[in-house]
Write a structure and sequence with these properties.
194 residues; mainly beta; SH3 type barrels; 2 domains; seven-stranded mixed β-sheet; 2 helices; 14 strands; elongated
């Protein structure tokens, strides 16, 4: 199931043991190397470490109440998991990056993204178009398979236009309803009766 990233921001993290709210998500850590969710950064008064993180694999369920975990023991600190430390040090944020195609033509900026709830990988980028191009299409949905490269300032995607030139072939068409012979007029000007 695809979930928008906005649904996971400011989402309460609930304890299955106590039923109480433990924290809320403040940021989503995205690994730019493979566009996967590494952890959710948490905020709240009951946290032992600052910053604290919740790995997606520790989430029991995503419901209308929020993210449900077993207990606060699932929270990890910055230096507890090496991969979280690496991605946190990148300072990478996918929102607001320019999106360009293979021809270096700007398509817009990343406005949000949709992720798969089972694999925690980003499946679609929602791209806001520039002002003049937004008159026709205000947003573009770009699939994960179209992404070529992710850099700190842009995301490069495959171009939708074919680069092969098509030969212009001049074709003559004949209209079957138009005859080359001129038809005689059906109305005659001669008077038959005096």
């Amino acid at each position: 199931m695809l979930i928008s990233n906005s649904r996971l921001l400011k989402t309460p993290v609930m304890s299955l043991q106590t039923g109480a709210k433990l924290a809320a998500t403040s940021q989503i850590l995205v690994d730019p190397r493979d566009l996967t969710i590494v952890a959710y950064q948490l905020e709240g008064p009951a946290l032992d470490e600052n910053p604290s993180f919740l790995r997606p694999t520790d989430v029991r369920e995503l419901s209308n109440l929020g993210l449900i975990v077993d207990s606060s023991d699932e929270f990890v600190g910055l230096n507890d998991v090496i991969r979280i430390t690496q991605v946190y040090d990148y300072g990478f944020d996918l929102i607001g990056l320019d999106v360009i195609d293979d021809n270096k033509k700007k398509l817009g900026k990343v406005q949000s993204y949709n992720l798969d709830s089972s694999s925690f990988s980003i499946q679609q980028l929602v791209v806001k178009r520039p002002l003049l191009k937004s008159l026709g299409e205000p947003e573009l949905l770009i699939n994960r398979t179209q992404v070529v490269e992710v850099r700190e300032s842009y995301v490069q995607v495959h171009s939708t236009h074919d680069t092969e030139s098509v030969k212009n072939v001049v074709r003559e068409y004949t209209n079957p309803f138009r005859s080359t012979n001129v038809q005689p007029e059906t109305v005659t000007t001669e008077v038959r009766w005096p």
